[in-house]
Amino acid sequence: MSTFTYDHIHIRSRDPEKTAAYYERMFDAQIIRSMQEGKPRIDMKIGGQDVFIAPVASNSGVNAPPVTPYEGLDHFGLRVTNIDKVVADLKAKGAEFTMELNSPRPGIKICFVRGPEGVSIEVLERAPK
To answer: Domains of the chain by range and CATH?
Structure first.
């Protein structure tokens, strides 16, 4: 049987610079600038994960983002420690919360933030086992 490992997350954006700036400001993403086929490219690293930002031209025919919740890939999660401080920092930075911090079951605290292009981002803390 094959072994599968994560390689990347791919985000499409009408404004890659603005999208990258948001993730850098909110989640301390490392911005990686390069050239691909003679055009500027912006990628990021968030929590060790590669995140690619693909530009969307106005005449590309790419659909607008859906409104959450919806069927299919729903969100990605970022695990943190000291979530109360993280949430306070995100609020101070102007993050839009779609779900306030709560504890759906013992040992976990979660909240959701809406990122650019309607991307739903879960911020969570799991109690040590």
So the answer is: 1-58 (3.10.180.10), 74-129 (3.10.180.10)
**Using the 8-state DSSP alphabet, how is residue 67 labeled?**
P
The CA-based dihedral angle spanning residues 59, 71, 120, 21, taken in that order and rounded to the nearest 10 degrees: -20
- The pTM (predicted TM-score) of the whole model is 0.86
Beta strand 96-105 with 108-114: parallel, antiparallel or unpaired? antiparallel
Give the mean pLDDT of the chain.
Answer: 91
Dihedral sign computed on CA atoms, order 7, 13, 16, 21 = negative
Which of 80, 98, 104, 84 is closest to 27 using CA atoms? 80
For 59-86, write each residue's pLDDT tens digit: 988 888 888 788 878 899 999 999 999 9
What pLDDT does residue 64 have? Answer: 86
- As given in the structure block, the two tokens for residue 125 are 């803390």
